[in-house]
Each structure stands twice: as C-alpha cells, then as structure tokens.
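Researcher: We're teaching a course module on how sequence relates to structure. For the next exercise, students receive a sequence and then see the predicted structure as tokens, so they can try to spot secondary structure elements on their own. Here is the exercise chain.
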Amino acid sequence: MRILLVEDDELLGDGIRSGLAQYQYTVDWVKNGLAAWSALQSEHFDLVILDLGLPKLSGEEVLNNMRSKNILTPVIILTAHDTIHSRIKGFDSGADDYVTKPFNLEELCARIRALRRRTSSSNVNTTLTVGDITLDPATRLVFKDGQMVELSRREFVLLQMLLENAGKVMSREQATQSLYGWGYDIDSNALEVHIHNLRKKLKCKNITTIRGVGYMLTK
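Model: And here is the predicted structure for the students to work with:
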C-alpha cells in the first residue's frame, strides 16, 4: 500500500514515515500543499494522510482540488484542529477520516486498515484473476490452481499491479515507486529479484520482460 504523507512538521513527519514503514507501508512524504498536489496529479497513491495547516497550499485546498478533479483516493485528515466545525468542514470537503494531534500510531494504523476494508468492500468484486492465478486484495491471499501461495508484501503488491494491468506494459519506474516510494537507495536489480521470485513461486511463465521498458503479464 502506497501512502502519500503531507506534513510540514519535520519531526512529526519523519516519525510518521518511520512508524508506518514498520507496518510495511510504502510512504512518500511531502512538506507543502503544492508538492502534494503535483504528486497527486502525476502518480498513483492508495491513501493520503493530509495535514490542514500547510505552506503554499492548504490541506483543505489540496482536498478540494482532488475531489473537483475526481481524484477519489481516500484521505485521512491529520490535524491539530479539533473543533466540531473543522471536522464537519473536513468531511464535507471529501475527507474519509479525521485524526487529531497528538495521536497514537497504532490507532492511525487501525484507521488505515478500517478505511482499506471499507474501500475494498465498496467494490462488487475486487478479486483479480488471470489464467490460473487469483489474488484477493481484501484478504491479501493469492492462489495458483486453487493452491494458496505465500508472497512477501512487495511480491504481493507487484503481482497485484501486474494483474491489474494484464496485457499492458508496466514500466520499471512505476513498479519501483509503488514498491519503495521516493528517496530510497535500492539495488539496481531489486525489481528483477522480485520478478524472479514471483515466477518461481507461481510457476508462471507469462510474466514477460520488455527489455529497456518494464514487465507485462500476458493474458
């Protein structure tokens, strides 16, 4: 799960990013509203954790821009504003949840899980199936010929992306950012290792390498 964290407080932002990483989330952190809006227009995120009191562009403006452009990514507002008026305004602007500072990291993670369950259950059928491979995002289970296959978190995310884009080329950049986020110093062959593991665990020959571009799961 890739999260965009929008928080201008250096100490708090670093703590949230480090804490969520311990729960196996991929977190990209920006420190002002303009950077957040730019990222949201160019990249895909599964969730946004949004402070309201941001420089350059307020959190409320970011949220209004998102909803006006039909960007439906779930948003958790994270703010020190704890008035009823602020909460109502946040929800009316399109927020999905509202957490006030100070907060407990475990509670934030529980809210992330609850929000993920709600958004998953809102779809009639979230199960992805291509050939004899089936992936259920809600339960995080993968089956090959009806037999459950254990995958690491990054292998699961990578397979989900391949299934969602079956028959289309997935670029290396797109895959790497979804798995690791920004600013991580990763080995040049890290993505190839994950692809190799998927092929081996799933006994799958239809994950194709498009040299110089990326990968594709052929139907």
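Model: If you want an answer key for the exercise: Residues 176 and 191 are 7 Å apart (CA to CA). The first strand starts at residue 2 and ends at 6.
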